[in-house]
Specification:
signal; metal ion binding; 297 residues; ZnuA-like; four-stranded parallel sheet; 10 helices; Zinc ABC transporter substrate-binding protein; Bact_metal-bind_prot9
Amino acid sequence: MKRLIFVLLSLLSLAAHADLKVFATVPEWGALAKEIGGKHVDVFIATGGLQDPHRVEAKPSLIAHARNADLVVATGAELEVGWLPVVLRDSGNPHVQPGQPGNFEAARAVRMLEVPTRLDRADGDVHAGGNPHIQTDPRNFLKIGEALSARMAQLDTANAGDYQANFKNFSERWKIAIAKWETSAASLRGMHVVTQHKAFPYLYDWLGIVEVGTLEPKPGVEPSVSYLAQVMTDVETKKPRRVIRAAWNSPRPTEWFSEHAHVPAVVLPFTVGGSDQAKDLFSLFDDTIARLLEANK
């Protein structure tokens, strides 16, 4: 009887060990890892949908999760530069350090927008590799998902076939969803908008939306009332039809501009968990398109 119990416990231990432990820095990559990994992954997500991904505290709990991870999935492009390097360093986990197979940066798989021509801290939170908010264009998930499934297969060869099959299934469903979203959002093409923080260039590139102004004087810098008034004057002739912010942005600048410029304000979820409706990747974009169209009525 004792031998049987020992064998059962050993099998359970092996099954638990076979799971790929994934540390995702932001909700979108955690959701994608679950789509691809299925039953083979145990995913920990370091941040929430209403949290500023630039500003995260390197808490001991994050370090502990990184210490036990087989794979860290991050955006890269300096999005997590203020906290992830500390988490990885203090984790002491050699497998997930930069340059190792256990460290995956999504930004390396896609074309980057808004790559700066100069770098100066006086310009605010400018990212050398380009704007890191790549998850707002659903087309990027196909390239990132393909690269991520290959990395998972590399790290967990026993389940490589399942990772590839799961990605194929996700890809097929995702392409159908993209076509549906594009049809629904056709009326948004060419629309002029003002954005609080430059969080949506990839979304605008996908849908053909034109950003005519931003409320922040520099990326990550809260605008004064006088600056907001100047933006309102500057964009008046361009006739913006929306002022848009991410769910984690402070509401004050967008609300001020909306009230004084008489432009509808739209709060977009930005990532999974950014709204009650955005519960997974598919509903994230369902809700994003719905919110943009609702303000169009």
